Amino acid sequence: MIFAALASLLALMLIGLLMIDLICYAFPLAIGLAAGQWADAAGLGLAFSIGIGLGAAMLTMILARIAIGLARSPFELAAIGLLFAIPAALAGYHASLGLWTLFAQADYSAHILASFAAIGFGALAWTRLPHIGGARPT
Predict the structure, then answer these.
(1) Could you tell me the CA-to-CA distances from 110 to 6, 77, 104, 130 in Å, in that order?
(2) Local confidence band at 136 (pLDDT 50, 70, 90 cut-offs)
(3) pLDDT tens digits along 108-125
(4) What is the rounded distance in angstroms from the CA atom of residue 106 to the CA atom of residue 87?
(5) Helices (runs of H) and strands (runs of E) counted in the chain
């Protein structure tokens, strides 16, 4: 049990280092995957579904950059931040829970660790969000 906890924490930290630069893209990835799955379910073909998914993800990022640039109040930035932090938190939760189950059986301690990871990844996406749209004038 101790080995599983230490190995899972070490693996989570290493994957966390890889996810630091990519965590802000969980929301556009989710939008792109949903659009691609919709296109595939509609019978539009694999190539067209991939194109629609990539286009939807890129459009989401473009709209997010515009929204961050146009946001004037802290409430607008908070709403945009939540759009990016919630998928990042879900991704962090499932990544840490998956890592835990590689080493040990998932029990209450796995969900506690995954919950802390979700908070951490959500906070990381929240703090990195202003860097997506470039520098904001003060």
Answers:
(1) 12, 33, 9, 32
(2) low
(3) 888 998 899 899 888 888
(4) 22
(5) 5, 0
Environment class of 55 (CB within 10 Å of its CB; exposed 0-12, middle 13-18, buried 19+): middle
User: In the block, which residue shows the tokens 């994957």?
Assistant: 15
The residue written with tokens 């930290």 in the block is: 13
The whole-angstrom distance between residue 3's C-alpha and the CA centroid of its chain comes to 28
Q: How many Å apart are CA 91 and CA 113, to the nearest integer?
A: 14
> What does the alpha-carbon distance between residue 4 and residue 69 come to, in Å, rounded to a whole number?
44
Contact in structure between 51 and 36 (CB atoms under 8 Å): no
Q: Are 53 and 36 in contact (CB under 8 A)?
A: yes
